[in-house]
Amino acid sequence: MTTGPPARMPNIHDNMSYADIHFHILPGVDDGPSTMDESVALAAAAVADGTTVVVATPHVRSGYLTDVSELPDRVRELRERLAREQIGLAVRRGAELGHDMVGRLTQSELDSVAHGPPGGRWLLVETPFVVLDGEFTAATDELRDRGFGRHVAAGNRACVHRGSAAGVARQIDEPA
Fold it and tell me: What pTM did the predictor assign?
């Protein structure tokens, strides 16, 4: 029989790291950092908080970035700068896709900002600032029909009215 104080229970947070799948870190493309220095500072803060991987998710919608072919170079530039600064944050390429862009992007362009394995690819879709209407659900239906799962971002800001909550629930419940 052992006497004395009980052994310390391990804290699951001691050896845990975090990934953030919705992170505005690319400089000068949206409402995230304006400069590369601000992006580096944001990356350093994320690492200090235990984050090891982020998905760069610039707004890809009217009024912001609409050409996803720019993203590989922008992500590469940030990765190179973080490596020079010895900031241990892995940056993956993604997007916060506006529903207005779904029909404009090719399958290849959508795939370039999607995540997951073959047969399980998904996209982060931004809700409108106003009502979840037929255009939003048509766009997310199109993504499903094109083989993508949908993760809805910032759903809390859409106006709640008859049908909005059900529309979000439908997007969550329907498989790709």
Answer: 0.79
